[in-house]
Amino acid sequence: MKPNVLLIMVDQMRADCLSMLNHPVVDTPNLDQLARNGALFNNAYAATPSCVPARASVLTGMSQTSTKRVGYEDKVDWNYENTMPGEFAKAGYHTQCVGKMHVYPTRNLCGFHNVILHDGYMHYNRFKHTTKSVESFEQTDDYLNWLRDKAGSNVDLTDLGLDCNSSTVTRPWALPEELHPTNWVTTQSIDFLRRRDPTKPFFLKMSYVRPHPPFDPPEAFYSMYRDLDLPEPPIGNWAKEEDSTNAGLNPVTSEGIVPKRRLERAQAAYYALITHIDHQIGRFLMAMQEYGVYDNTVILFVSDHGELLGDHNLYRKTLPYEGSAKVPLILADPGNCLGLNKNTQIDKVAELRDIMPTLLDVANIEIPSSVEGDSLLSLWKNENTNWRDYIHGEHEHGVKSYHYITNGREKYIWFSQTGEEQFFDLVGDPKELTNKIEDPNYEKQVKVRRDQLILELVGREEGYTDGKELFAGRPVKPTLE
């Protein structure tokens, strides 16, 4: 029988928050062990670092220009011909998703045989004055109904007073830990091991909403970090250091000067949510051993994007900086199904669109011609000597809309509305503290990356370039025609 495939996806986890990478405080023992049992990709990125476009690339293996999602927009139909779970299902796999999908319509299976759904607090189906009853949160969300059955009909996700984008405000989870949405994803996934078809291999996606806000870790995990000396966020010499409008006081701020203790509590809660997920992954790995599937399952762990967490006085995601755009990506083979060297770290640049072809390759399933990513197995096998030199990323973000080019060693950013440029030497300056765009020592590298961006943008409907130079100020939108 072919190997089982487990995709563990988290939401808004920074790439550097692994103890294996010597983070000064975060403890991730189970993720560390997954990396020891496989390959850790040190330069993995979300080309379009917010939930909707990032997850579209994971689902389809396509770039943002092919999914048409170059920004964040809800309520746009997901009607892709080829999807990762669909290809697994056609190949005879029993397919299941537990947790976050963030697609539309909300209950769209997108190729899975079944979805047990919790997308988190989704504004478009929580706002009762604009939502049809068939699309309401109560109708579509499985976790909320489960929670009310366990804890009472009046319980809601907003009881803690935290918005789904509360970027700097936190408080511990108030109910028993087993009722937390992180535990729920694990519990439901263990139940799938009981209910799965034993005559077929399985493709299971465990999709955790955390460490995306609200920052609501169980007290046992919050207490692990609350009193530690936490690292101060890096502030580049290019960063905005004034906050004349007090934007940092907004609980859902994306930039500004946040009161020091509030920021420290947010950091502690964010790290606590990651360790909580890590422990729940450990719980599921033990269940896999109990059900006898651990040794014939290949596991991929990834986040859809990162979290700035105060870097350069910025918060949340969307922007092209390392805290936001870079993601953890681990491919583990605990039972040695693939026969490859373990405890390996790979520095070639990877992107979320590589996940679908990688996992199809693991299962020896034909990769559809629509897929634009590449299998990471070729890097792990050290077979691909012609791997891509860079990835192109972008995001519609109002006046801060941008495009970026990176290979994991350097990064060029062009803000499409203002024409501002940035260039970072990520080897010598991994925290992006110094913008080298005016440094004559980097003039050649800047031109190479700018020319690569021009090539990527030729023919785009926005009219960003004539093939020779970049044009700032062109109208942008989150979804291409």
TrEMBL record:
It comes from the Bacteria. The keyword Hydrolase applies. Residues 3-365 form the Sulfatase N-terminal domain. The keyword Metal-binding applies. GO terms for molecular function: arylsulfatase activity. Keywords: Hydrolase, Metal-binding. Its EC number is 3.1.6.1. PANTHER family: IDURONATE 2-SULFATASE. Belongs to the sulfatase family. This is Arylsulfatase. It comes from Virgibacillus halodenitrificans. The lineage of its organism: Bacteria, Bacillati, Bacillota, Bacilli, Bacillales.
